[in-house]
Write a structure and sequence with these properties.
The protein is mainly β. 8% of the residues lie in helices and 40% in strands. It has helices at 25-40, 174-178, and strands spanning 2-5, 8-13, 18-19, 22-23, 44-52, 59-70, 75-82, 86-95, 122-123, 138-142, 157-164, 198-205, 214-219, 223-224, 227-235, 241-250. It is globular and about 50 Å long.
Length: 259
């Protein structure tokens, strides 16, 4: 993203970051996050919420960012990502996480789950249409028990390992991409596979991730009234919880039946 004037950033939705023609939601939120961090003049996102207004396709985009509050530790920014029309409306808080380890107060109720090694998990590789081209930009290894390509497990879980290609290191903004990189949990149900439009995505970042694999756990508890929520947990290569997410999506449309 390049700032053309204060609060206005220019960029583009790059090729092959899409799901059957529509840009991945986490990728779009990361574009917003980059511009918002620049406007805040702070490197790290702490919390961000994006409301998805319409799908985005490959091509130029602008981000209009507005400072809401500048504090001693945190700066809040509001932004809109637009092409011909607005795509995302976002609100985020930004800070410097480089000294976050100075606070040693920790209480953990749940334990990090044990996963098979990445080499024991199936890599999801991009196809012509499915798996989507987005997968050519990441190395995603799916937990064997969640491999819906063989058969849906019946459990609304998607777990596994994730890193960027060429071992590009993660940063706090990159975690926004990671929060939406895995296949939807609903694919492990009998509802079927189709586009699952995101209505809202919130990500909380705890710490800058260490280089290497992210261990990711996404789960859903409730499917009702045409909606599904998805809760995400992400640990870095040191086993530290670095981010949490919650996403609200629409269920895939049911197949049309002739009268």
């Amino acid at each position: 993203m390049t700032e053309s004037e204060p609060g206005t950033w220019a960029g583009a939705i790059a090729p092959d970051w899409d799901i059957v023609g529509n840009a991945n939601g986490g990728y779009l939120l990361a574009l917003a996050g980059r511009a918002m961090a620049g406007t805040a003049d702070r490197h790290d996102v702490t919390s961000i919420t994006g409301h998805f207004l319409r799908p985005g396709q490959e091509g130029p985009v602008t981000v209009s960012a507005e400072l809401v509050k500048i504090g001693r530790r945190f700066t809040t920014v509001r932004a809109t990502v637009a092409a011909a029309k607005p795509l995302i409306s976002a609100l985020g808080t930004f800070t410097d996480l480089s000294d976050s380890s100075n606070d040693q107060r920790t209480m953990t109720i749940g334990e990090r789950p044990l996963f098979p090694h990445p080499d024991e998990c199936q890599r999801v590789e991009a196809g012509e249409t499915f798996p989507p081209k987005f997968m050519s930009n990441v190395d995603l290894r799916l937990h064997p028990d969640d491999n819906f390509y063989h058969a849906p497990s019946g459990n609304l879980l998607m777990r596994g390992w994730l890193k960027l290609i060429n071992d590009e290191p993660w940063d706090s903004i990159g975690l926004l991409l990671a929060s939406d990189a895995f296949p939807p949990t609903i694919f492990n149900s009998a509802i079927g596979m189709a586009w699952v439009p995101t209505l809202e995505l919130t990500v909380h970042v705890r710490k800058r991730p260490a280089p290497g694999w992210l261990q990711c756990h996404f789960s859903s508890r409730f499917v009702s009234e045409g909606f599904v929520e998805e809760d995400g947990l992400m640990w870095d290569a040191t086993g530290t919880l670095v981010a949490q997410s919650r996403q609200l999506s629409l269920l895939p449309r049911p197949p049309e039946h002739s009268a």
